[in-house]
Amino acid sequence: MKNFDYRDNELCCEGVRIEEIAKKVGTPLYLYSQKALVDNYKAFDKAFKEIDHLICYSCKVNSNLSICKVLKEEGAGADVVSGGELYKALKVGVDPKKIVFSGVGKTREEIKYALKNNILMLNVESILELELTDEIAGRLKKKAPVALRINPDIDPNTHPHISTGLAKSKFGIEISRAKEGYKKAKELENIEVLGIHMHIGSQITELEPFVNSLGKIVELIKELEKERIRLKYLDIGGGLGISYKKGEKAPTPKEFAERLLPLIKELKCKIILEPGRAIVGDAGILVTKVLYVKKTEEKSFVIVDAAMNDLIRPSLYNAYHEIIPIKKLRTLPRGPRVPSGREANSPSGISSPLGTRGELSLGDLESPRDERRTTVDVVGPVCESGDYFAKDRELAEVKSGDLLAILDAGAYGFSMSSNYNARPKVAEILVEKDKFCIIRKRENYEDLIRGEQEE
Ligand code: LLP
User: Fold this and answer.
1) Which of 12, 281, 309, 322 is the most buried (most CB within 10 A)?
2) pLDDT value at position 364?
3) Which parts of the chain register pLDDT below 70?
4) Within 6 Å (CB) of ligand 1, which residues are found?
5) What mean pLDDT value characterizes the chain?
6) What's the CATH number of domain 103-273, 3.20.20.10, 3.40.50.261, 3.30.70.260, 3.40.640.10?
7) Is residue 327 classed as helix, strand or coil in its secondary structure?
């Protein structure tokens, strides 16, 4: 984890003690390091510096206004998938000419909203959507700038829920029908064909799937050129994974770029990238407090105040997130980690991490290995057995009131949270050097009923 480290046995984010923040703001809370965000963004930008490119941060990953703003100030554009995300991107001042809009089910209103705001392009996912976009653009007396999202039919070897580039998936236009799509787009009066888009999935930790799909797309671009369809933009989507778990490796943006650049640098297209997780994933943690340690004959449960409604990834994908104490109990000489061997092996990196790219090694992050380590389930208060953060996990023994950090929670954490069980959404904090700022205040009970009526 970048910019999270122990000082005097206390976990800090940049220059701030996390316990201090928790005391002031309460728990649970999401905490982000601004430096980590910026550094991750810069790493991407630098990796592609030799070609004309635009990084459109994928807002679905974490669309907090402050997060989007930090990235916008670094020069990022936005990849949006709903009217709401477009609204948020525009709100923080992202240049509309740096916004791309994907999604298989764009509504008439959303298409209109995007066209009225003159975004860079709509990534159109079907011929039907193309026709609707043409009709709406005609009514607005505009030309709709579009890219076609092409489904290259490649297996990204990631969790099935987040594979998007297989023939059986709902996303994009099948590659076999791509030419037909482009010809159609050319014919439509109110459509301006600007680009081509692909996005094959998320948390991809191998480079081959990217290389293979891009190979197919580049081939297609060349074939289209022969038919006098010249594209200005090649949007290669997001999907680069991060390392959530010790021993799990994910390519760095530099390695990613090194493999892809040879394929694309001769093209006359500007390259658009839509990273999300790789920018914000390891820049955030979820801080939670131990409520009870409950021992049954079968198991020990560490019951914490965060739950599946705050971070759903473990419940939804059996995702692995490292969990560490905010305060180490005592310093012991560090030894190699003894794997518990009991941790569920989740599919391809939807399990996780620490750091191939992190500054902090697991050795640094681990609590001291001593007789007080126990094997527990870390669970939340929600009324579902699927409400867990870790199963059969070896952790330093904790007691009620202790604080824990659930790592690598910056991506698809808060953005997938809900009010299930009528639980107010948690606070979000952004740390910059030795200061912290509440970038989303904790919801209260009033917030839970806003908009509802008793009648
Ligand atoms: N572009 C498009 C069109 C996407 O659909 C996505 C993610 C991205 C970019 C960003 O992908 P990234 O760089 O973050 O991998 N909730 C799941 C992940 C869902 C991914 C959805 N699409 C999770 O928690 O793992």
Assistant:
1) 281
2) 52
3) 330-371
4) 58, 60-61, 79, 102, 162, 199, 202-203, 237-240, 274-278, 313, 350, 411-412, 416
5) 91
6) 3.20.20.10
7) strand
